[in-house]
DNA sequence: CATGTTTCCTGACAGC
DNA sequence: TGCTGTCAGGAAACAT
């Protein structure tokens, strides 16, 4: 499941490969779920634009686009892609067979295709007619310690639920919430507002550390994640609690426990996390 | 507004 | 072998 480090990896490789290319035409599949705007609107917004850059905002891939208007005018647009659980954004040759569950294809001037494939259809495509997309929350990699602490004031929800709330911090998902909480020694169920300042400081640094390390290793390949070039990530080898139920804690050897919090499998060490 | 619950979807896997 | 049932989970919609 693509979270911040996986989306960062994908956006970086897409940026390398298609930056400067142009979208000549757009094909959209018959399924409506992946489209946040009408097919006509998306197709009209993308067709005939040049890809200025590809970057990540939260868990979203953002294509910054430039459209030519009239003789010498230009307009900025954006193509915003959320991969959901199983979404992939691939750069392919048109000769490659189109896999099942392909929902969108952008044909590029270079002769290649950008394909959006998503079996489970939790992913979403949208467009903006100006450079306006800022994501639902704040970037965890750049937020200050004070701003971080402020996010959790008066929140009675469990800290893990708050970390998954994209309107607070965007980009953190199930893997990195569990891993950050382990590294900072905090139980997932603790009420967010009741964490001490020292605990919040530890969590703030743990999140940045975990995300940066994961980006370096190309993300976590659990289930079938691969980046835009089909490469697997390696951060799953560094997981200390995620999907390690019953296995000994790498610090104290206590078996890792699992329970369900807000509908998500949650993993923690009952001795190291308080 | 804050928080909890339900819904959307398919592939993987267990059990018979 | 092949069928059926269960489950995973991000985020929006809905309920409280």
Descriptive report:
The chain is of the alpha+beta class and 274 residues long. 24% of the residues lie in helices and 25% in strands. The protein folds into 2 domains: 4-128, MutM-like, N-terminal (N-terminal domain of MutM-like DNA repair proteins, Alpha-Beta Barrel); 145-268, Orthogonal Bundle (Helicase, Ruva Protein, domain 3), CATH 1.10.8.50. It has helices spanning 4-18, 39-46, 145-151, 159-164, 174-183, 197-216; strands spanning 22-28, 49-57, 60-69, 73-82, 88-92, 102-108, 113-117, 124-128, 257-261, 264-268. The chain starts with a helix and ends in a 6-residue tail after the last strand. The mean pLDDT is 92. The chain binds a DNA duplex (16 and 16 nucleotides) through loops.
Radius of gyration: 20 Å
Q: Mean pLDDT, nearest integer? A: 92
Helix amount: 10-25%
Largest sheet: 8 strands, antiparallel
Count of distinct structural domains = 2
Structural class by SSE content: alpha+beta
Number of helices: 6
Give the ordered list of helices and strands: HEHEEEEEEEHHHHEE
What overall form do the CA principal axes indicate?
A: elongated
CATH superfamily name of the largest domain?
MutM-like, N-terminal
Instruction: Bin the strand percentage.
Output: 15-25%
What is the CATH topology assignment of the largest domain? Answer: N-terminal domain of MutM-like DNA repair proteins
Task: Specify the CATH class of the largest domain.
Answer: Alpha Beta
SS elements, strand count: 10
CATH architecture annotation of the largest domain: Alpha-Beta Barrel
Note poorly predicted spans: none
Question: What's the arrangement of strands in the largest beta sheet?
Answer: 5-7-6-1-2-3-4-8
Q: What oligomeric assembly is this protein in?
A: single chain
How far the N terminus sits from the C terminus, by CA atoms, comes to 27 Å
């Amino acid at each position: 499941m693509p979270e911040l480090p996986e989306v960062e990896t994908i956006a970086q490789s897409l940026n390398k490969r298609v930056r400067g290319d142009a979208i000549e035409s757009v094909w959209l599949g018959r399924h409506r779920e992946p489209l946040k705007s009408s097919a006509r609107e998306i197709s009209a917004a993308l067709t005939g634009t040049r890809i200025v850059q590809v970057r990540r905002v939260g868990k979203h891939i953002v294509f910054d686009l430039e459209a030519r208007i009239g003789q010498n005018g230009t307009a900025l647009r954006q193509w915003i892609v959320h991969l959901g659980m199983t979404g992939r954004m691939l750069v392919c040759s048109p000769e490659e067979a189109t896999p099942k569950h392909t929902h969108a294809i952008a044909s590029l001037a270079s002769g290649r295709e950008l394909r959006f494939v998503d079996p489970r259809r939790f992913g979403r495509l949208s467009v903006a007619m100006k450079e306006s997309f800022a994501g639902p929350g704040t970037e965890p990699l750049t937020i200050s310690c004070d701003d971080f602490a402020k996010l959790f004031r008066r929140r009675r929800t469990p800290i893990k639920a708050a970390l998954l709330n994209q309107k607070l911090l965007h980009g953190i998902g199930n893997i990195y919430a569990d891993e950050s909480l382990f590294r900072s020694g905090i139980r997932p169920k603790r009420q967010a507002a009741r964490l001490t300042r020292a605990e919040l400081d530890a969590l703030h640094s743990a999140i940045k550390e975990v995300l940066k390390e994961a980006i370096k290793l190309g993300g976590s390949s659990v289930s079938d994640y691969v980046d835009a070039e089909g490469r697997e990530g390696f951060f799953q080898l560094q997981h200390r609690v995620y999907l390690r139920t019953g296995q000994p804690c790498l610090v104290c050897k206590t078996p890792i426990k699992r329970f369900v919090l807000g509908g998500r499998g949650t993993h923690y060490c009952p001795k190291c996390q308080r």
